[in-house]
Amino acid sequence: MANHSGPRPWEYPFTLGVGGVVVHDGHVLLVLMSYGPAKGFWTLPGGFVDRGETPEAAVVREVREETGVEAAVEALVGIRFRIMPGKPPAVPAPEKPAPVAAAAPAPGAPESRTDTYVVFRMRHVAGLPQPDQREVAEARWWPLTEALASEQVAGITQSILQGMSDGAGLHPRGVERLLIDIPYFQLYT
Predict the structure, then answer these.
(1) What is the pLDDT of residues 119-134, one digit of tens each?
(2) Which of 19, 21, 53, 165: CA 20 to 30 A from 158?
(3) Radius of gyration over alpha carbons of the chain, in Å?
(4) Phi/psi zone of residue 89: left (φ > 0), alpha (ψ -120 to 50 degrees), beta?
(5) What is the DSSP string of 53-70?
(6) Residue 158 and residue 58: Cα distance in Å, rounded?
(7) How do residues 135-167 score in pLDDT, each as one tens digit?
């Protein structure tokens, strides 16, 4: 997670995040978040894509930073795209120039934020889960059935895992198409 004094990444008007479904011996790697909107929930390891970085490189980096686990991207699972009502912060990030004036929205039009989340299926390469103790309080391998049943696992994580599950484990290629009835949420490939 980058160190900045401006808005947090999830407060920008547009964000691009990644998540990794890291699979090993029939278990999935989950992290207990210690900050942000998912604080206190177990989620897929991941984070925001840095400037000049591909989503594939970002998910490999984020999994390593948050858990110490080396993992390789196998397949795109899906993309969640949502538009969230509400005004994003007016303060630009300190490392970015001031924004160019844009056309004002139509009278009465709500302001919004756009959030895109790219999810990859990943193969464990090496390492044991060790939380970074900054963004992640705990990291561990979960049996799929336990992750799907636990109220401590974030709903989006459970939805992704359920969409990939065939009852006996996770599909090796990811989902073909999954639409979930959550406001502002679509996961698809």
Answers:
(1) 999 999 999 999 999 9
(2) 53
(3) 17
(4) beta
(5) --HHHHHHHHHHHHH--E
(6) 22
(7) 999 999 999 999 999 999 999 899 889 888 765
Angle at 118 between CA 116 and CA 121, to 5 degrees: 165
Say which amino acid occupies 79: I
The more confident residue out of 20 and 103 is 20
Q: What secondary structure does DSSP assign to 25-85, as a single string?
A: TTEEEEEEE-SSTTTTSEE-SEEEPPTT--HHHHHHHHHHHHH--EEEEEEEEEEEEEEEE
**Cβ-proximal residues to 40 (8 Å cutoff; 6+ apart), any chain:** 32, 33
β-pairing, 14-24 vs 112-126, is parallel
